[in-house]
Amino acid sequence: MLRRTICNRDCPDACGIVATVEDGRVVRLQGDREHPVTGGFLCYRTNQFLRTQYSKQRLTAPLLRKNGRLSEVSWSEALDYAAERLLAIRAESGPAAIFHYRSGGTLGLLVAQASELFFEKFGPVTVKRGDICSGAGEAAQELDFGVSDSSDLFDLENARHILLWGKNVCTSSPHTIVVLKRSKAACVLIDPLHHQSAALCERHVQLKPGADFALAMGIAAVLFERDWVDSAAASYCDHLDGFRALAQTRSVEAWCEEADVTVESAVDLARRLHEGPTTILIGWGMARRLHGAAIVRAVDALAAVSGNLGVPGGGASYYFRRRRAFRKLAEGLSARTICEPLFGPEVLRAQDPPIRAVWITAANPVAMLPDSRAVARALETRELVIVVDSWLSDTAERAHLVLPTTTLLEADDLLGAYGHHHLGQAQPVVAPPEGVKSDLGILQELALRVGLGDTMAGSTRAWKERLLGDGLSLDDMPMRNPLAPQVLFEGRRFPTPTGRVNLIHEPPAAPVEDPSYPLQLLSVSTPRSQSSQWAKEPPKPTSVTVHPDAARGIAHGALAVLESPLGSLTVRVEHDDKQRRDVAIVPKGGHLRDASCANVLVHARITDLGEGGALYDERVRLRPLV
Question: Whole-prediction pTM value?
Protein backbone atom coordinates (compact mmCIF):
# COMPACT_ATOMS: atom_id res chain seq x y z
CA MET A 1 0.00 0.00 0.00
CA LEU A 2 1.23 3.49 -0.91
CA ARG A 3 0.61 6.37 1.49
CA ARG A 4 1.57 10.01 1.18
CA THR A 5 2.83 12.52 3.73
CA ILE A 6 5.07 15.59 4.05
CA CYS A 7 8.41 15.66 5.85
CA ASN A 8 8.16 17.78 9.01
CA ARG A 9 11.83 18.17 9.83
CA ASP A 10 13.78 21.43 9.99
CA CYS A 11 14.61 21.76 6.30
CA PRO A 12 13.50 24.37 3.74
CA ASP A 13 12.00 21.86 1.31
CA ALA A 14 9.16 20.11 3.24
CA CYS A 15 9.35 17.18 0.81
CA GLY A 16 6.44 15.12 -0.38
CA ILE A 17 6.95 11.48 0.63
CA VAL A 18 5.40 8.27 -0.69
CA ALA A 19 5.73 5.40 1.77
CA THR A 20 5.25 1.77 0.83
CA VAL A 21 3.57 0.03 3.77
CA GLU A 22 3.38 -3.75 4.19
CA ASP A 23 1.76 -5.39 7.21
CA GLY A 24 1.80 -2.12 9.15
CA ARG A 25 5.48 -1.46 8.51
CA VAL A 26 7.09 1.03 6.14
CA VAL A 27 9.41 -0.83 3.80
CA ARG A 28 10.30 1.90 1.30
CA LEU A 29 10.39 5.70 1.06
CA GLN A 30 10.27 7.61 -2.23
CA GLY A 31 9.76 11.16 -3.35
CA ASP A 32 6.20 12.05 -4.25
CA ARG A 33 6.17 12.75 -8.01
CA GLU A 34 2.88 14.60 -7.63
CA HIS A 35 4.26 17.20 -5.23
CA PRO A 36 4.39 20.52 -7.15
CA VAL A 37 7.86 21.47 -5.87
CA THR A 38 9.75 18.49 -4.48
CA GLY A 39 8.34 15.85 -6.85
CA GLY A 40 10.31 12.73 -7.49
CA PHE A 41 13.19 12.53 -5.05
CA LEU A 42 14.16 12.78 -1.40
CA CYS A 43 17.34 13.94 0.26
CA TYR A 44 19.77 11.32 1.56
CA ARG A 45 18.71 11.97 5.15
CA THR A 46 15.08 11.12 4.48
CA ASN A 47 15.90 8.27 2.10
CA GLN A 48 17.73 6.67 5.01
CA PHE A 49 15.09 7.46 7.64
CA LEU A 50 13.81 3.89 7.98
CA ARG A 51 17.04 3.06 9.82
CA THR A 52 16.00 5.65 12.39
CA GLN A 53 12.29 4.82 12.35
CA TYR A 54 12.95 1.21 13.32
CA SER A 55 16.05 1.75 15.41
CA LYS A 56 16.39 -0.25 18.62
CA GLN A 57 17.04 3.09 20.34
CA ARG A 58 13.46 4.26 19.64
CA LEU A 59 11.63 5.12 22.86
CA THR A 60 8.32 3.29 23.30
CA ALA A 61 7.51 4.02 26.94
CA PRO A 62 7.89 7.04 29.24
CA LEU A 63 11.11 7.19 31.24
CA LEU A 64 11.10 8.56 34.80
CA ARG A 65 14.27 9.19 36.79
CA LYS A 66 14.29 7.08 39.94
CA ASN A 67 17.34 6.73 42.16
CA GLY A 68 19.40 8.58 39.56
CA ARG A 69 18.41 6.37 36.61
CA LEU A 70 15.77 6.67 33.90
CA SER A 71 13.34 3.76 34.14
CA GLU A 72 10.26 2.83 32.12
CA VAL A 73 6.93 3.71 33.72
CA SER A 74 3.31 3.78 32.62
CA TRP A 75 1.78 6.82 30.99
CA SER A 76 -0.48 7.30 33.99
CA GLU A 77 2.47 7.48 36.36
CA ALA A 78 4.44 9.73 34.00
CA LEU A 79 1.64 12.24 33.46
CA ASP A 80 0.58 12.21 37.11
CA TYR A 81 4.17 13.02 38.06
CA ALA A 82 4.40 15.80 35.45
CA ALA A 83 1.11 17.38 36.55
CA GLU A 84 1.92 17.16 40.27
CA ARG A 85 5.36 18.74 39.89
CA LEU A 86 4.28 21.48 37.46
CA LEU A 87 1.32 22.44 39.62
CA ALA A 88 3.48 22.51 42.75
CA ILE A 89 6.16 24.70 41.16
CA ARG A 90 3.55 27.08 39.78
CA ALA A 91 1.88 27.33 43.20
CA GLU A 92 5.15 27.90 45.05
CA SER A 93 7.05 30.18 42.64
CA GLY A 94 4.60 31.29 39.98
CA PRO A 95 4.50 30.32 36.30
CA ALA A 96 7.66 32.29 35.49
CA ALA A 97 9.59 29.50 37.23
CA ILE A 98 8.58 27.17 34.38
CA PHE A 99 10.39 27.51 31.04
CA HIS A 100 8.82 26.05 27.89
CA TYR A 101 11.50 25.69 25.22
CA ARG A 102 10.42 24.70 21.72
CA SER A 103 12.62 24.50 18.64
CA GLY A 104 12.51 22.99 15.13
CA GLY A 105 12.73 19.23 15.66
CA THR A 106 9.40 19.30 13.91
CA LEU A 107 8.11 22.27 11.93
CA GLY A 108 4.52 21.14 12.38
CA LEU A 109 2.19 24.07 13.03
CA LEU A 110 -0.09 21.99 15.24
CA VAL A 111 2.72 20.93 17.56
CA ALA A 112 3.87 24.53 17.78
CA GLN A 113 0.48 26.10 18.42
CA ALA A 114 -0.83 23.36 20.76
CA SER A 115 2.26 23.52 22.98
CA GLU A 116 2.31 27.32 23.00
CA LEU A 117 -1.40 27.49 23.81
CA PHE A 118 -1.09 24.96 26.64
CA PHE A 119 1.76 26.79 28.37
CA GLU A 120 0.20 30.19 27.78
CA LYS A 121 -2.99 29.09 29.51
CA PHE A 122 -1.10 27.21 32.22
CA GLY A 123 0.85 30.39 32.99
CA PRO A 124 1.80 32.19 30.94
CA VAL A 125 5.22 30.72 31.58
CA THR A 126 8.73 31.71 30.54
CA VAL A 127 9.43 31.19 26.83
CA LYS A 128 12.34 31.77 24.47
CA ARG A 129 13.06 34.88 22.43
CA GLY A 130 15.36 35.28 19.44
CA ASP A 131 16.15 32.55 16.96
CA ILE A 132 19.33 30.49 16.91
CA CYS A 133 19.14 29.92 13.15
CA SER A 134 17.54 32.82 11.29
CA GLY A 135 17.17 35.59 13.86
CA ALA A 136 19.68 38.03 12.40
CA GLY A 137 18.73 37.56 8.76
CA GLU A 138 15.00 37.88 9.30
CA ALA A 139 15.46 40.94 11.50
CA ALA A 140 17.74 42.50 8.88
CA GLN A 141 15.23 42.05 6.07
CA GLU A 142 12.33 43.23 8.22
CA LEU A 143 14.31 46.41 8.89
CA ASP A 144 15.25 46.83 5.23
CA PHE A 145 12.07 45.76 3.46
CA GLY A 146 9.41 45.52 6.18
CA VAL A 147 9.18 41.75 5.74
CA SER A 148 11.44 38.76 5.13
CA ASP A 149 9.91 36.81 2.24
CA SER A 150 10.68 35.69 -1.30
CA SER A 151 9.25 35.61 -4.79
CA ASP A 152 7.95 32.29 -6.02
CA LEU A 153 10.72 29.69 -6.22
CA PHE A 154 10.02 29.12 -9.90
CA ASP A 155 10.55 32.82 -10.58
CA LEU A 156 14.25 31.87 -10.65
CA GLU A 157 13.55 30.74 -14.20
CA ASN A 158 13.18 34.43 -15.11
CA ALA A 159 16.62 35.36 -13.76
CA ARG A 160 19.60 36.16 -15.96
CA HIS A 161 22.04 35.69 -13.08
CA ILE A 162 21.73 33.90 -9.74
CA LEU A 163 24.18 34.51 -6.91
CA LEU A 164 24.39 31.74 -4.32
CA TRP A 165 25.74 33.91 -1.53
CA GLY A 166 26.78 31.63 1.33
CA LYS A 167 24.19 29.03 0.30
CA ASN A 168 24.91 25.34 -0.28
CA VAL A 169 21.72 24.24 -2.01
CA CYS A 170 23.01 20.69 -2.48
CA THR A 171 22.87 20.13 1.28
CA SER A 172 20.32 22.61 2.59
CA SER A 173 17.77 22.88 -0.21
CA PRO A 174 18.33 20.12 -2.79
CA HIS A 175 15.06 20.64 -4.65
CA THR A 176 16.20 24.14 -5.60
CA ILE A 177 18.82 22.40 -7.77
CA VAL A 178 16.12 21.28 -10.20
CA VAL A 179 14.93 24.87 -10.63
CA LEU A 180 18.48 26.16 -11.03
CA LYS A 181 19.20 23.62 -13.74
CA ARG A 182 15.96 24.42 -15.54
CA SER A 183 16.74 28.12 -15.38
CA LYS A 184 18.98 29.57 -18.06
CA ALA A 185 20.60 31.83 -15.49
CA ALA A 186 24.35 31.96 -14.98
CA CYS A 187 25.09 30.99 -11.37
CA VAL A 188 27.94 32.20 -9.16
CA LEU A 189 28.84 30.82 -5.73
CA ILE A 190 30.09 33.30 -3.12
CA ASP A 191 31.30 31.29 -0.16
CA PRO A 192 34.50 30.82 1.88
CA LEU A 193 33.94 27.06 1.67
CA HIS A 194 34.29 24.85 -1.36
CA HIS A 195 31.36 22.46 -1.55
CA GLN A 196 29.17 20.52 -3.95
CA SER A 197 27.15 23.55 -5.04
CA ALA A 198 30.25 24.91 -6.79
CA ALA A 199 29.59 22.37 -9.55
CA LEU A 200 26.32 24.17 -10.36
CA CYS A 201 28.12 27.48 -10.87
CA GLU A 202 30.35 28.95 -13.54
CA ARG A 203 32.39 30.77 -10.91
CA HIS A 204 33.25 30.47 -7.21
CA VAL A 205 34.30 33.61 -5.31
CA GLN A 206 35.99 32.10 -2.25
CA LEU A 207 36.18 35.09 0.06
CA LYS A 208 37.62 35.29 3.57
CA PRO A 209 35.16 33.94 6.16
CA GLY A 210 33.15 36.76 7.69
CA ALA A 211 34.24 39.28 5.04
CA ASP A 212 30.89 39.33 3.22
CA PHE A 213 30.21 42.91 4.33
CA ALA A 214 33.52 44.06 2.86
CA LEU A 215 32.82 42.29 -0.43
CA ALA A 216 29.32 43.79 -0.59
CA MET A 217 30.78 47.25 -0.02
CA GLY A 218 33.35 46.65 -2.75
CA ILE A 219 30.58 45.64 -5.16
CA ALA A 220 28.54 48.68 -4.15
CA ALA A 221 31.50 50.97 -4.75
CA VAL A 222 31.81 49.54 -8.27
CA LEU A 223 28.09 50.08 -8.90
CA PHE A 224 28.39 53.74 -7.94
CA GLU A 225 31.70 54.32 -9.75
CA ARG A 226 30.41 52.89 -13.03
CA ASP A 227 26.96 54.45 -12.81
CA TRP A 228 25.40 50.99 -12.63
CA VAL A 229 22.93 52.00 -9.92
CA ASP A 230 19.29 51.95 -11.00
CA SER A 231 18.35 55.44 -12.11
CA ALA A 232 15.08 55.17 -10.14
CA ALA A 233 16.71 53.97 -6.91
CA ALA A 234 16.25 57.30 -5.16
CA SER A 235 12.49 56.99 -5.63
CA TYR A 236 12.19 53.74 -3.66
CA CYS A 237 15.25 53.75 -1.37
CA ASP A 238 15.79 55.75 1.80
CA HIS A 239 19.38 56.63 2.79
CA LEU A 240 20.75 56.18 -0.74
CA ASP A 241 23.31 58.94 -0.19
CA GLY A 242 24.28 57.39 3.14
CA PHE A 243 24.74 53.99 1.55
CA ARG A 244 26.87 55.53 -1.21
CA ALA A 245 28.99 57.33 1.37
CA LEU A 246 29.43 54.09 3.33
CA ALA A 247 30.55 52.19 0.24
CA GLN A 248 32.96 54.98 -0.71
CA THR A 249 34.64 55.27 2.70
CA ARG A 250 37.26 52.97 1.19
CA SER A 251 38.43 52.19 -2.29
CA VAL A 252 37.28 49.13 -4.19
CA GLU A 253 40.80 47.79 -3.85
CA ALA A 254 40.76 48.19 -0.06
CA TRP A 255 37.39 46.48 0.32
CA CYS A 256 38.55 43.60 -1.87
CA GLU A 257 41.79 43.26 0.05
CA GLU A 258 39.80 42.93 3.28
CA ALA A 259 37.57 40.30 1.65
CA ASP A 260 40.62 38.55 0.14
CA VAL A 261 39.17 38.58 -3.37
CA THR A 262 40.35 40.16 -6.59
CA VAL A 263 39.01 43.50 -7.77
CA GLU A 264 37.95 41.71 -10.94
CA SER A 265 35.66 39.49 -8.83
CA ALA A 266 33.88 42.52 -7.38
CA VAL A 267 33.55 44.10 -10.82
CA ASP A 268 32.14 40.88 -12.27
CA LEU A 269 29.57 40.55 -9.50
CA ALA A 270 28.58 44.20 -9.91
CA ARG A 271 28.18 43.62 -13.64
CA ARG A 272 25.87 40.67 -13.05
CA LEU A 273 23.72 42.75 -10.73
CA HIS A 274 23.64 45.58 -13.27
CA GLU A 275 22.71 43.33 -16.19
CA GLY A 276 19.87 41.69 -14.28
CA PRO A 277 17.41 40.49 -13.53
CA THR A 278 19.50 38.91 -10.80
CA THR A 279 18.39 36.96 -7.74
CA ILE A 280 20.61 36.64 -4.70
CA LEU A 281 19.91 33.45 -2.72
CA ILE A 282 21.17 34.36 0.73
CA GLY A 283 22.44 31.56 2.95
CA TRP A 284 21.75 31.60 6.66
CA GLY A 285 25.29 30.83 7.80
CA MET A 286 26.80 34.24 7.14
CA ALA A 287 24.13 35.85 9.33
CA ARG A 288 25.28 33.74 12.28
CA ARG A 289 27.97 36.25 13.19
CA LEU A 290 28.27 39.13 15.59
CA HIS A 291 27.62 41.47 12.65
CA GLY A 292 25.45 38.99 10.74
CA ALA A 293 22.52 41.35 10.30
CA ALA A 294 24.82 43.99 8.83
CA ILE A 295 26.03 41.43 6.29
CA VAL A 296 22.49 40.57 5.18
CA ARG A 297 21.54 44.26 5.09
CA ALA A 298 24.53 44.99 2.84
CA VAL A 299 23.50 42.21 0.45
CA ASP A 300 19.89 43.47 0.54
CA ALA A 301 21.14 46.92 -0.40
CA LEU A 302 22.96 45.56 -3.44
CA ALA A 303 19.74 44.01 -4.73
CA ALA A 304 17.88 47.26 -4.08
CA VAL A 305 20.19 49.84 -5.66
CA SER A 306 20.89 47.67 -8.70
CA GLY A 307 17.18 47.54 -9.52
CA ASN A 308 16.68 43.86 -8.75
CA LEU A 309 13.72 44.15 -6.36
CA GLY A 310 10.09 43.99 -7.41
CA VAL A 311 10.87 42.56 -10.84
CA PRO A 312 10.52 39.02 -12.24
CA GLY A 313 13.80 37.14 -11.88
CA GLY A 314 15.18 39.51 -9.26
CA GLY A 315 15.31 39.50 -5.48
CA ALA A 316 17.18 38.99 -2.25
CA SER A 317 15.78 35.67 -1.06
CA TYR A 318 16.49 34.69 2.54
CA TYR A 319 13.22 33.17 3.79
CA PHE A 320 9.73 32.11 2.71
CA ARG A 321 6.96 33.06 5.14
CA ARG A 322 5.76 29.55 5.94
CA ARG A 323 3.31 30.48 8.73
CA ARG A 324 1.56 33.36 6.96
CA ALA A 325 -1.43 31.34 5.72
CA PHE A 326 -2.23 29.80 9.11
CA ARG A 327 -4.02 31.16 12.14
CA LYS A 328 -2.42 31.63 15.53
CA LEU A 329 -4.20 30.07 18.48
CA ALA A 330 -1.93 31.43 21.20
CA GLU A 331 -1.62 35.16 21.87
CA GLY A 332 2.14 35.10 22.43
CA LEU A 333 1.94 35.93 26.14
CA SER A 334 4.80 35.11 28.48
CA ALA A 335 5.89 35.73 32.06
CA ARG A 336 9.40 36.52 30.83
CA THR A 337 11.79 35.37 28.12
CA ILE A 338 15.09 33.56 27.79
CA CYS A 339 17.30 34.42 24.79
CA GLU A 340 17.68 31.20 22.81
CA PRO A 341 21.40 31.50 21.95
CA LEU A 342 22.08 32.39 25.61
CA PHE A 343 20.05 29.46 26.98
CA GLY A 344 22.78 28.14 29.28
CA PRO A 345 23.94 31.34 30.98
CA GLU A 346 20.46 32.92 31.16
CA VAL A 347 18.81 29.87 32.72
CA LEU A 348 21.66 29.55 35.20
CA ARG A 349 21.43 33.16 36.37
CA ALA A 350 17.65 33.65 36.24
CA GLN A 351 16.23 34.91 39.53
CA ASP A 352 12.98 36.21 41.06
CA PRO A 353 12.05 33.44 40.53
CA PRO A 354 14.78 31.08 39.34
CA ILE A 355 13.90 28.66 36.55
CA ARG A 356 12.88 25.52 38.43
CA ALA A 357 11.31 23.49 35.60
CA VAL A 358 12.01 23.19 31.87
CA TRP A 359 9.66 21.50 29.37
CA ILE A 360 11.36 20.83 26.03
CA THR A 361 9.39 20.35 22.81
CA ALA A 362 10.96 19.33 19.47
CA ALA A 363 14.47 20.28 20.54
CA ASN A 364 17.91 19.06 21.55
CA PRO A 365 19.44 22.25 23.00
CA VAL A 366 22.43 20.50 24.58
CA ALA A 367 23.72 19.54 21.13
CA MET A 368 22.42 22.43 19.05
CA LEU A 369 22.96 25.58 21.13
CA PRO A 370 26.29 27.33 21.76
CA ASP A 371 28.31 26.52 24.88
CA SER A 372 26.82 23.05 25.12
CA ARG A 373 28.35 22.37 28.50
CA ALA A 374 26.63 25.42 29.99
CA VAL A 375 23.32 24.27 28.51
CA ALA A 376 23.89 20.80 29.97
CA ARG A 377 24.78 22.29 33.36
CA ALA A 378 21.68 24.49 33.27
CA LEU A 379 19.45 21.45 32.77
CA GLU A 380 21.32 19.26 35.26
CA THR A 381 20.75 21.84 38.00
CA ARG A 382 16.97 22.26 37.52
CA GLU A 383 14.44 20.55 39.77
CA LEU A 384 12.35 19.30 36.87
CA VAL A 385 13.25 18.72 33.22
CA ILE A 386 10.67 17.11 30.93
CA VAL A 387 11.66 16.24 27.36
CA VAL A 388 9.29 15.11 24.61
CA ASP A 389 11.31 13.13 22.06
CA SER A 390 11.47 9.87 20.13
CA TRP A 391 15.04 9.06 21.16
CA LEU A 392 17.31 9.54 24.12
CA SER A 393 19.16 12.64 22.93
CA ASP A 394 21.90 14.52 24.77
CA THR A 395 19.10 16.64 26.23
CA ALA A 396 16.78 13.76 27.11
CA GLU A 397 19.63 12.05 28.99
CA ARG A 398 19.50 14.95 31.46
CA ALA A 399 15.74 14.85 31.97
CA HIS A 400 13.74 13.74 34.97
CA LEU A 401 10.97 12.60 32.65
CA VAL A 402 11.11 11.65 28.95
CA LEU A 403 7.84 11.29 27.03
CA PRO A 404 8.06 9.33 23.74
CA THR A 405 6.43 10.97 20.75
CA THR A 406 5.79 10.35 17.06
CA THR A 407 8.22 10.54 14.14
CA LEU A 408 7.80 12.21 10.76
CA LEU A 409 6.15 9.04 9.40
CA GLU A 410 3.56 9.06 12.21
CA ALA A 411 2.96 12.82 12.34
CA ASP A 412 -0.48 14.35 11.80
CA ASP A 413 0.08 18.06 11.26
CA LEU A 414 0.22 21.05 8.92
CA LEU A 415 3.42 22.27 7.27
CA GLY A 416 4.56 25.38 5.54
CA ALA A 417 7.97 25.40 3.87
CA TYR A 418 10.68 28.03 4.22
CA GLY A 419 12.24 27.13 0.86
CA HIS A 420 9.13 27.57 -1.30
CA HIS A 421 5.53 28.81 -1.04
CA HIS A 422 3.68 25.48 -0.94
CA LEU A 423 1.77 24.19 2.07
CA GLY A 424 1.21 20.57 2.99
CA GLN A 425 -0.40 18.17 5.39
CA ALA A 426 1.61 15.55 7.25
CA GLN A 427 -0.49 12.42 7.59
CA PRO A 428 0.50 9.26 9.46
CA VAL A 429 1.53 6.53 7.04
CA VAL A 430 1.77 4.06 9.94
CA ALA A 431 0.53 4.10 13.51
CA PRO A 432 3.10 4.82 16.20
CA PRO A 433 4.35 1.92 18.30
CA GLU A 434 2.26 1.01 21.29
CA GLY A 435 3.32 3.26 24.13
CA VAL A 436 4.01 6.31 21.94
CA LYS A 437 1.76 9.38 21.90
CA SER A 438 1.65 12.47 19.70
CA ASP A 439 2.62 15.84 21.16
CA LEU A 440 -1.03 16.86 21.03
CA GLY A 441 -2.11 13.66 22.74
CA ILE A 442 0.44 14.19 25.51
CA LEU A 443 -0.71 17.76 26.11
CA GLN A 444 -4.38 16.78 26.07
CA GLU A 445 -3.89 14.11 28.72
CA LEU A 446 -1.77 16.45 30.82
CA ALA A 447 -4.40 19.17 30.40
CA LEU A 448 -7.04 16.94 32.00
CA ARG A 449 -4.81 16.75 35.09
CA VAL A 450 -4.18 20.50 35.41
CA GLY A 451 -7.59 21.97 34.67
CA LEU A 452 -7.12 22.75 30.98
CA GLY A 453 -9.10 19.88 29.50
CA ASP A 454 -11.58 22.07 27.65
CA THR A 455 -8.84 24.33 26.28
CA MET A 456 -6.96 21.44 24.70
CA ALA A 457 -9.89 19.25 23.67
CA GLY A 458 -10.61 18.25 20.09
CA SER A 459 -9.57 15.74 17.45
CA THR A 460 -6.39 16.23 15.47
CA ARG A 461 -8.42 17.10 12.37
CA ALA A 462 -10.40 19.67 14.34
CA TRP A 463 -7.18 21.28 15.55
CA LYS A 464 -5.81 21.40 12.02
CA GLU A 465 -9.01 23.01 10.71
CA ARG A 466 -8.75 25.66 13.46
CA LEU A 467 -5.31 26.54 12.13
CA LEU A 468 -6.37 26.95 8.50
CA GLY A 469 -6.53 30.50 7.22
CA ASP A 470 -8.97 31.83 4.65
CA GLY A 471 -8.92 29.96 1.36
CA LEU A 472 -7.26 26.84 2.77
CA SER A 473 -8.69 23.33 2.84
CA LEU A 474 -7.20 20.11 4.12
CA ASP A 475 -8.59 18.34 1.07
CA ASP A 476 -6.61 20.63 -1.28
CA MET A 477 -3.21 19.98 0.28
CA PRO A 478 -0.53 20.28 -0.96
CA MET A 479 -1.33 23.69 -2.34
CA ARG A 480 0.37 26.98 -3.00
CA ASN A 481 -0.03 29.56 -0.25
CA PRO A 482 -2.76 31.84 -1.62
CA LEU A 483 -1.24 34.83 0.20
CA ALA A 484 2.26 34.35 -1.22
CA PRO A 485 3.48 36.76 -3.89
CA GLN A 486 4.52 35.64 -7.34
CA VAL A 487 6.97 38.55 -7.46
CA LEU A 488 7.81 40.04 -4.08
CA PHE A 489 7.56 43.84 -3.82
CA GLU A 490 5.97 44.09 -7.26
CA GLY A 491 5.63 47.74 -8.20
CA ARG A 492 8.41 48.42 -5.70
CA ARG A 493 5.99 48.73 -2.82
CA PHE A 494 7.57 47.91 0.53
CA PRO A 495 5.77 47.47 3.89
CA THR A 496 8.19 49.74 5.74
CA PRO A 497 7.07 52.87 7.62
CA THR A 498 7.99 55.04 4.61
CA GLY A 499 7.03 52.55 1.93
CA ARG A 500 10.65 52.53 0.72
CA VAL A 501 13.70 50.34 1.22
CA ASN A 502 15.65 51.25 4.35
CA LEU A 503 19.26 51.02 3.14
CA ILE A 504 22.08 50.33 5.57
CA HIS A 505 24.21 53.45 6.00
CA GLU A 506 26.33 52.79 9.08
CA PRO A 507 29.19 50.28 9.34
CA PRO A 508 29.24 47.38 11.80
CA ALA A 509 31.90 47.08 14.45
CA ALA A 510 35.18 45.70 13.15
CA PRO A 511 35.79 42.05 14.09
CA VAL A 512 38.58 41.24 16.52
CA GLU A 513 40.89 38.38 15.56
CA ASP A 514 43.28 36.58 17.89
CA PRO A 515 46.32 35.40 15.89
CA SER A 516 46.90 32.59 18.37
CA TYR A 517 43.70 31.03 17.02
CA PRO A 518 44.29 31.24 13.26
CA LEU A 519 41.31 29.22 11.98
CA GLN A 520 37.66 30.18 11.67
CA LEU A 521 35.42 27.41 12.99
CA LEU A 522 32.56 26.63 10.60
CA SER A 523 30.23 23.92 11.90
CA VAL A 524 28.06 23.39 8.85
CA SER A 525 25.16 21.23 7.76
CA THR A 526 26.00 17.87 6.31
CA PRO A 527 23.95 15.63 3.99
CA ARG A 528 24.33 12.91 6.62
CA SER A 529 22.27 14.56 9.34
CA GLN A 530 19.31 16.82 10.00
CA SER A 531 20.73 18.91 12.82
CA SER A 532 21.47 16.31 15.54
CA GLN A 533 19.35 13.60 13.86
CA TRP A 534 21.83 11.47 11.91
CA ALA A 535 20.86 9.19 9.04
CA LYS A 536 23.49 6.73 10.25
CA GLU A 537 25.69 6.67 13.31
CA PRO A 538 27.72 9.91 13.41
CA PRO A 539 31.50 9.61 13.12
CA LYS A 540 33.37 9.16 16.38
CA PRO A 541 35.47 11.18 16.84
CA THR A 542 34.13 13.93 14.66
CA SER A 543 36.15 15.16 11.71
CA VAL A 544 37.73 18.52 11.03
CA THR A 545 38.47 19.46 7.42
CA VAL A 546 41.33 21.88 6.78
CA HIS A 547 43.65 22.84 3.96
CA PRO A 548 46.84 20.72 4.17
CA ASP A 549 48.87 23.89 4.80
CA ALA A 550 46.68 24.65 7.84
CA ALA A 551 47.12 21.21 9.40
CA ARG A 552 50.37 22.16 11.18
CA GLY A 553 52.02 18.98 9.98
CA ILE A 554 49.24 16.71 11.22
CA ALA A 555 48.68 13.95 8.70
CA HIS A 556 45.44 13.25 6.90
CA GLY A 557 43.47 10.76 8.98
CA ALA A 558 45.42 11.44 12.17
CA LEU A 559 43.84 12.37 15.48
CA ALA A 560 44.38 15.88 16.83
CA VAL A 561 42.92 18.41 19.26
CA LEU A 562 40.78 21.26 18.00
CA GLU A 563 40.56 23.98 20.61
CA SER A 564 39.02 27.39 21.12
CA PRO A 565 39.34 29.69 24.14
CA LEU A 566 36.21 27.94 25.50
CA GLY A 567 36.90 24.24 25.04
CA SER A 568 38.46 21.44 23.02
CA LEU A 569 37.57 18.35 20.99
CA THR A 570 39.51 15.34 19.84
CA VAL A 571 39.04 15.23 16.06
CA ARG A 572 40.14 13.24 13.04
CA VAL A 573 41.91 15.53 10.57
CA GLU A 574 40.91 15.51 6.92
CA HIS A 575 42.87 17.43 4.30
CA ASP A 576 41.14 19.26 1.44
CA ASP A 577 43.27 21.49 -0.77
CA LYS A 578 40.15 23.18 -2.19
CA GLN A 579 39.47 24.85 1.14
CA ARG A 580 40.91 28.14 2.33
CA ARG A 581 43.84 28.05 4.72
CA ASP A 582 41.95 29.91 7.44
CA VAL A 583 38.93 27.63 7.99
CA ALA A 584 38.25 24.56 10.11
CA ILE A 585 35.11 22.73 9.00
CA VAL A 586 33.27 20.47 11.46
CA PRO A 587 29.91 18.75 10.84
CA LYS A 588 26.94 20.33 12.61
CA GLY A 589 24.89 18.20 14.98
CA GLY A 590 27.52 16.05 16.68
CA HIS A 591 26.53 14.61 20.04
CA LEU A 592 27.97 15.74 23.35
CA ARG A 593 27.95 12.20 24.73
CA ASP A 594 30.24 11.16 21.84
CA ALA A 595 32.59 14.11 22.46
CA SER A 596 31.70 15.19 18.90
CA CYS A 597 29.69 18.34 19.58
CA ALA A 598 31.26 21.41 17.97
CA ASN A 599 29.19 23.67 20.20
CA VAL A 600 31.45 22.92 23.16
CA LEU A 601 33.91 25.22 21.37
CA VAL A 602 31.47 28.07 20.71
CA HIS A 603 30.78 30.92 23.11
CA ALA A 604 27.15 31.88 23.73
CA ARG A 605 26.90 35.25 21.96
CA ILE A 606 24.22 37.00 19.96
CA THR A 607 24.07 38.77 16.63
CA ASP A 608 23.70 42.49 16.07
CA LEU A 609 19.95 42.20 15.37
CA GLY A 610 17.32 39.54 15.99
CA GLU A 611 19.13 37.83 18.87
CA GLY A 612 20.43 35.07 16.63
CA GLY A 613 23.37 32.90 17.55
CA ALA A 614 26.83 34.18 16.60
CA LEU A 615 27.92 30.61 15.91
CA TYR A 616 30.47 31.36 13.19
CA ASP A 617 32.63 33.90 14.99
CA GLU A 618 34.64 31.37 16.97
CA ARG A 619 38.38 31.12 16.32
CA VAL A 620 40.14 27.79 16.82
CA ARG A 621 43.50 26.11 16.40
CA LEU A 622 44.77 22.59 15.79
CA ARG A 623 47.44 20.86 17.81
CA PRO A 624 48.73 17.30 17.81
CA LEU A 625 47.13 14.81 20.15
CA VAL A 626 49.70 14.08 22.83
Answer: 0.97
